[in-house]
Amino acid sequence: MIRLENLRVGFSQGGGAQGGSAQGAGEERIVLNDFNLSVPKGQTVSLIGSNGAGKSTVLNAIAGSVPILGGAIFLGERECGGDPEWMRALTVGRVRQNPLAGTAGEMTILDNLALASRKGPRRLRFAVTSRIARNLADKVADLGMGLENRLRENVSKLSGGQRQALTLLMAVLAEPSVLLLDEHTAALDPANADLVSELTKRFVRQYSLTALVVTHDMGRALSEADRIVMMHAGEVVADVEGEEKDRMAVADLVALFRKARGSEYAEDRDLLR
Amino acid sequence: MFEGILIEGLVYGILALGVFISFRVLDFPDLTVEGSFPAGAAAAAILATRWGAQGGSTPGLAISVILLVLGFLAGAAAGLATSAIHHRLKVPPLLAGIVTMTGFYSINLRILGGKPNLPLIKFNPLLQGARDWLGGAIGSELSLLFAALILAAVVVGLLDLFFHTEIGIGMGALGVNEAAVVQAGVNPISLRRGGIMLANGLAGLSGALAASYQGFADVNFGAGIVAAGLASVMIGELLLKTQFIGVQLLRVLLGSILFRGLMYAARSWGYLAGIGPNDLRLLTALLIIGAMAISGRPLRGKKAQMPRKTRGSA
Ligand SMILES: Nc1ncnc2c1ncn2[C@@H]1O[C@H](COP(=O)(O)OP(=O)(O)OP(=O)(O)O)[C@@H](O)[C@H]1O
Ligand SMILES: [Mg+2]
Questions:
Q1: CA-nearest residue of chain A to B171?
Q2: Contact residues on chain A for B167, CB-CB shorter than 8 A
Q3: Which of A66, A86, A98, A129 would you mutate first to test chain B, the one with the most B CBs within 10 A?
Q4: pTM of the full predicted structure?
Q5: Class of A2-272 per CATH?
Q6: How much is the average pLDDT of A27-41?
Q7: Among A20, A218, B32, B294, which residue has the least CB neighbours within 10 Å?
Q8: Structural domain spans, chain A
Q9: CB proximity A14 to B under 8 Å
């Protein structure tokens, strides 16, 4: 379960771009203001919205890679808004858009998997025993990419799609309760994108994960998620699930988009007046 | 002469292993070794002197081990200081190392009892022990070489095992992609601290060995030692390419031996080319530049110059 209450996230405008800032940091630009979202356990939510809407910022705030200015973040029963990123990773698995981001390229597939197979402090015991290696090889074979024969090759030798599939496997291997995916198929060709999103569905079911999936692919969002949340300018502008969602087509989502954008123009006009 | 080069190569090779761990494995360009190497030398030398003054018991294995452990700990303490400066005050690695190394100059002087130099003429248990351990059957220099070989093999063997443990693999990943380590629910700060302490512990151990071998400890032992270590690492990397950590470690020792050989050659026959003892540092610098030019591989550190802004425990 994920619950965000009155979340506030902003970035300081570095470099004094906004009028000669004498006091160093300059002013804060608020990206999320009193943002609320609750995702029950086991639900898959597609987070959609225009560029700069704040989707990645929501995921980053949950994972702890950007600090929050206010509000609360619950993962399960625990409020973890002040925990460092590594501590939140104990319950959160995550895949980013960049296939290079989640794996250690200059290490073997096996070592990467061994690293990801358990969450928490490292111990002084062998990371890859023959039993562990066999177990991991099985999991890699399940990806259906033939990577089980390349376990001792460096990850940097994999293609983007293979590497992203591996990253996804690493993200769920230690069975976290929450999965955060940020356009994780966007850098892949259509075939690989299909493959990785099939894997995603399978893992979400297999490990009964609570998933928050950012995507720009409306079709996928509709077919793969239980619920669709649309963001614009840091706010939720639409939130549909169940039958209401099932009745929607891609065209309906696009119309919603237009509406959200339109209101922005209206505001601009208001400002200019 | 050959024994001398080999022994020196192995003794300073352990320092080079430390440099390898910080620069290559952790991607943490650390200059602390200029302070941790003489710290190990000073700690071991003062203990040997005190021990000798207490009654000069026969050089045994126990006191030798204690000396080495003490050298390691003294170096690791310097590493701890650098890690704390880097992580708590968000000081970049190079500067954190310079701060520690500067401070340790004075600390090392204090360890040495206020004198810049401490000779180990009367009581040098490690050297005497190593010379005599085969009962003089094959001559003291060869005995010394075997002792150095065994010690270096033990260090490399232990490190190889270590880098196959969860902690070791975590450290390896930390230098490649910190995000992957964070994703595994590991505090990257404590992992990096451990790595920096290990690297400087090896430098301290090497310092303790060097003091015993040279027969004295000196506060200026550390001058130029980072460059020597780096040159060794890079020469090793020119020798062979491998992704196996054990071979990478051995390669560092080989590089160190080769580096000492080159330095010996320059000292002995350099005059033929107009090279004097004063030119050795320049030669080291040129070696590093040459190795980087040939391998096309500069120091990695493109990222991780600053600690990431992870909040919480340090
Ligand atoms: N590290 C940062 N520093 C400053 N501003 C940032 C930072 N990260 C995000 N922002 C700003 O926050 C806003 C929201 O960005 P975010 O990346 O969350 O958008 P997004 O919805 O993920 O967009 P996209 O679809 O393009 O990925 C943007 O205006 C962006 O400029
Ligand atoms: Mg984004």
A1: A122
A2: 122-124
A3: A86
A4: 0.91
A5: alpha beta
A6: 93
A7: A20
A8: 2-272
A9: no
